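Bumping with the actual sequence this time:
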Amino acid sequence: MKKNLITLVRLGLRIHSFFHLLEFLSAIYENAYITASIAFIAMALELSASYLIPKEHIHLKPLISEVHESCENEKHSLK
């Protein structure tokens, strides 16, 4: 349950970051540079948060990352 919730939170943060990217591009197109700066900062923070949720070992992948306690535990469970 906890792993599914963490995965859902990560996915939600990344999708929300995508909308900030669209907002950023729209603001640049409209020459609204202050709004673009705010959107870019929000996008960077949300993407960082999606990768840095604490106490988990993460293998970065484009949309959903692999999450487990450590690589050593994962290797032993595969045997």
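The tokens above came from a reply further down the thread. Residues 12 and 50 are 9 Å apart (CA to CA).
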